Amino acid sequence: MAAFLLGFLALAGFLGAAWWFSRQKTARASRLVRMLLGGGALLAGALLTLRGAMPLGIPIGLFGLGMLGIAVNAPGQNGPGQSGRPPQSGGGMSVSEAREILSVGPDATREEIRQAHRNLMKKLHPDTGGGSAALARQVQEARDLLLAALDD
Questions:
Q1: Is 80 helix (H, G, I), strand (E, B) or coil?
Q2: Using CA atoms, how far apart are residues 42 and 17, in angstroms rounded to an integer?
Q3: Sign of the alpha-carbon torsion through 44, 46, 48, 53
Q4: Distance (Å) of CA 8 to CA 12, 17, 18, 78, 84
Q5: Dist CA 12 CA 7 (whole Å)
Q6: How far apart are the C-alpha atoms of 34 and 128, rounded to whole Å?
Q7: DSSP designation for 126
Q8: Is 81 helix (H, G, I), strand (E, B) or coil?
Q9: How far apart are CA 79 and CA 62, in angstroms?
Q10: Which of 16, 29, 38, 123 has the most CB atoms around it within 10 Å of its CB?
C-alpha cells in the first residue's frame, strides 16, 4: 500500500510539474531544461569521477558545466545589460533607405510619412496573413527614422 501511495504521489508531482512547465514561455522553458540537464550531467559526472570512471565522468561533467553556462548566459533573458529588444544590425538604416522603403520624397510631410506607413503596414503586418514580422519591423523603423529626421 505504501508503494502505491508513493507512486501515486510521484505521478501527481510529475503531472503538476508538466502542467506548470507547459505554462512557461518558450525561452524560459528552454532555460529551465538546460539548467536541469546541466545540473544532472554535472552531478552524474561528479559521481562517475568519484567512483573511479574518470574517462567517462570528466566529459559528462564538462558537458553539464557547458549546459549550465548556456542557461545562465542564454540570449533573450532580460538580465543585466540586455534591454529586451532584439539586437539591431550594425549601423541601422539611413534616411535615404527609409524614404525608399516608404516610397516618399525628401520633402515629405509628417502626414505623408504616416499615410505611407499605414498603407504599407496594412499589407505587411504579420496579422494580415501576407506579411512578416521582419518586414513590419523594417517599415516601423523607417517611419520612426523619418519622423525623427523631421524633428531635427
A1: coil
A2: 22
A3: positive
A4: 6, 14, 15, 38, 42
A5: 9
A6: 35
A7: G
A8: coil
A9: 24
A10: 38
